[in-house]
């Protein structure tokens, strides 16, 4: 009921929800038919482990859909081993390090997960995953195996890292490295899969994966900032000491100490973390400009626009220190609808970056730095899509590399833009009809 | 391989930017002889900020509109390159701008050329493309406005055009740098003006929505760009690409106008508890009323339509050309530059 009230109090979001639920057509329809029992079961497991992610994966182009689904499940299996507190380190570490070898087997499964381990299903039924894995193109198999190897080893290293387990993340460099293992590697794997399928520009695999790294780190850092209170409750912390130690002697104090002074310091700490995360934005936008397949674009863009919206929400927000903050469901629908074209994504980023700028406190030690990074991002957005009337008549501005990306993808964006407009029109007509009908009914009742 | 500069003549070298030019040529060009030509004599006292030894700089007094004065300075300095940064401050009569910016520049160029000077770097202004309209990420392809907003920028544009058209490869090489919003030690307009606003209690007013991005440039960075320009002009490998060209010079950090202002006030120990926002149309009307009332009362108006337009306009630039062709990178960031400026102001109070 709370959600309905929330929606009614935000009419444009209500419209977005209606449009999203009733009128939005995925790039690729998923008919629910699978060519094998094992494949069907894998999609079932996907739905069990991540409902939101499952929805996005199912809309991918068929060939890549299966590969990314398997990639997701394999990493979820790794994560399930790593997360399981009923398993000893001595047991977990070799299992994680050698996990990629299991992918070569025809059959392997593991039923030693704790009974309450949420996603144990992927380990118990790993045989189904293996069956589908081996039906993928060999190059996709190699990509998944390589990332599994590196991620498994990364996880094992962290389990054995006493300093990390006792005190959390120390330096900003450590913070970036942790996010690399948790999210950057996933971004790298996905990038390789998309490039191999020719749905993304090959240059993304030739830049040392700098841009895909930023894609992963931007998401992960946003979640880490947002999840402060929840992580503390779980006995963990991922905020880097190099940053938080400027503001407090003890990270939990932001939650425990209710004084205005403590809150102020907590906000300054959040804001510095947001500043750190914003440095990934230009790489993220550049990455997205190079993804040409619409379903892959959606797959990559949706999490990024959610992340920038979340960053704007957590910025200078004292609630972060006390509870889990989330963007509204209506906002989510709006973002998904608007982020189907690259100009739409850029507009979303620009809008939220401005929100961050306007929510700044002059007394914040990073006040000017936040202003500068927001200005830099706005300048980059202006470079890609100039404001109306910004470029004087007759001026031929010197193009930047990003401008050729934008030009190359313009036909795709224009096509999708037409689809979106038709969809919006249908939605508006339906709403207008419904309102008219309701009005007529009320009229007849009254007379 | 960059040819080592032996001698430079800094025209306008005792001014705000001029002192920074002395400093940067001193720091970046070992063994260079620095000559300063200005209508003013050698400054009595130089801020501790500057590290160049005053006695190693030769000061030549003269008038830029006098051909004989110019030729005497060129002869004495035997300069490889002239850096021309002489310019009157904003707010002076039009005839002063015409005399110094246009006539003076023409005299300087003609005399330098005829006396065999190899190169000239001209300090133009980012304002040459501004006419009160928004400037979003402009680069050097932006045209001059048909009608300039003020006499200062009009004369700077005329002078710049003359300088760049005087470029003759193999004989006389020219370049124009267009710095935006220069501030730093020696600044008597930008940062001091903001400080005065805070002291008068006006800092709580925000004119416009503070969405407009603005470029400020630290004076030391502007001077550094001039050193780079001089070096590139005299280097046979790079001179072709840069000569006869204008270049925007900024701190490469466009920032919201009031965010910059508040950063200055904050560094000065002043943070307002709240802001009163006047949107642009309201502020312009208030500006006209203010001008009208001030005329009746015979005092200087604080708010004018001109100032409203200036503080509400987007004015930021794409300096890719300076970064790629000159190798320019701002070495002093905005925050540090503001601190240096306030330290300098406190030193001289």
Automatic annotation (TrEMBL), chain A:
<dbReference type="InterPro" id="IPR033904">
    <property type="entry name" value="Trans_IPPS_HH"/>
</dbReference>
<keyword id="KW-0808">Transferase</keyword>
<keyword id="KW-0753">Steroid metabolism</keyword>
<dbReference type="InterPro" id="IPR008949">
    <property type="entry name" value="Isoprenoid_synthase_dom_sf"/>
</dbReference>
<comment type="pathway">
    <text>Terpene metabolism; lanosterol biosynthesis; lanosterol from farnesyl diphosphate: step 1/3.</text>
</comment>
<keyword id="KW-0756">Sterol biosynthesis</keyword>
<keyword id="KW-0472">Membrane</keyword>
<dbReference type="InterPro" id="IPR019845">
    <property type="entry name" value="Squalene/phytoene_synthase_CS"/>
</dbReference>
<keyword id="KW-0752">Steroid biosynthesis</keyword>
<dbReference type="InterPro" id="IPR044844">
    <property type="entry name" value="Trans_IPPS_euk-type"/>
</dbReference>
<keyword id="KW-0812">Transmembrane</keyword>
<keyword id="KW-0256">Endoplasmic reticulum</keyword>
<keyword id="KW-1133">Transmembrane helix</keyword>
<protein>
    <recommendedName>
        <fullName>Squalene synthase</fullName>
        <ecNumber>2.5.1.21</ecNumber>
    </recommendedName>
</protein>
<dbReference type="GO" id="GO:0055056">
    <property type="term" value="F:D-glucose transmembrane transporter activity"/>
</dbReference>
<dbReference type="GO" id="GO:0051996">
    <property type="term" value="F:squalene synthase [NAD(P)H] activity"/>
</dbReference>
<comment type="similarity">
    <text>Belongs to the phytoene/squalene synthase family.</text>
</comment>
<keyword id="KW-0492">Microsome</keyword>
<dbReference type="InterPro" id="IPR006449">
    <property type="entry name" value="Squal_synth-like"/>
</dbReference>
<comment type="function">
    <text>Catalyzes the condensation of 2 farnesyl pyrophosphate (FPP) moieties to form squalene.</text>
</comment>
<keyword id="KW-0444">Lipid biosynthesis</keyword>
<dbReference type="GO" id="GO:0045338">
    <property type="term" value="P:farnesyl diphosphate metabolic process"/>
</dbReference>
Automatic annotation (TrEMBL), chain B:
<dbReference type="Pfam" id="PF01073">
    <property type="entry name" value="3Beta_HSD"/>
</dbReference>
<dbReference type="GO" id="GO:0000252">
    <property type="term" value="F:3-beta-hydroxysteroid dehydrogenase [NAD(P)+]/C4-decarboxylase activity"/>
</dbReference>
<keyword id="KW-0443">Lipid metabolism</keyword>
<protein>
    <recommendedName>
        <fullName>Sterol-4-alpha-carboxylate 3-dehydrogenase ERG26, decarboxylating</fullName>
        <ecNumber>1.1.1.170</ecNumber>
    </recommendedName>
</protein>
<dbReference type="GO" id="GO:0006696">
    <property type="term" value="P:ergosterol biosynthetic process"/>
</dbReference>
<dbReference type="InterPro" id="IPR002225">
    <property type="entry name" value="3Beta_OHSteriod_DH/Estase"/>
</dbReference>
<dbReference type="GO" id="GO:0005789">
    <property type="term" value="C:endoplasmic reticulum membrane"/>
</dbReference>
<comment type="similarity">
    <text>Belongs to the 3-beta-HSD family.</text>
</comment>
<comment type="pathway">
    <text>Steroid biosynthesis; zymosterol biosynthesis; zymosterol from lanosterol: step 4/6.</text>
</comment>
<keyword id="KW-0472">Membrane</keyword>
<feature type="domain" description="3-beta hydroxysteroid dehydrogenase/isomerase">
    <location>
        <begin position="10"/>
        <end position="279"/>
    </location>
</feature>
<keyword id="KW-0444">Lipid biosynthesis</keyword>
<keyword id="KW-0560">Oxidoreductase</keyword>
<dbReference type="InterPro" id="IPR036291">
    <property type="entry name" value="NAD(P)-bd_dom_sf"/>
</dbReference>
<keyword id="KW-0256">Endoplasmic reticulum</keyword>
<keyword id="KW-0752">Steroid biosynthesis</keyword>
<comment type="subunit">
    <text>Heterotetramer of ERG25, ERG26, ERG27 and ERG28. ERG28 acts as a scaffold to tether ERG27 and other 4,4-demethylation-related enzymes, forming a demethylation enzyme complex, in the endoplasmic reticulum.</text>
</comment>
<keyword id="KW-0520">NAD</keyword>
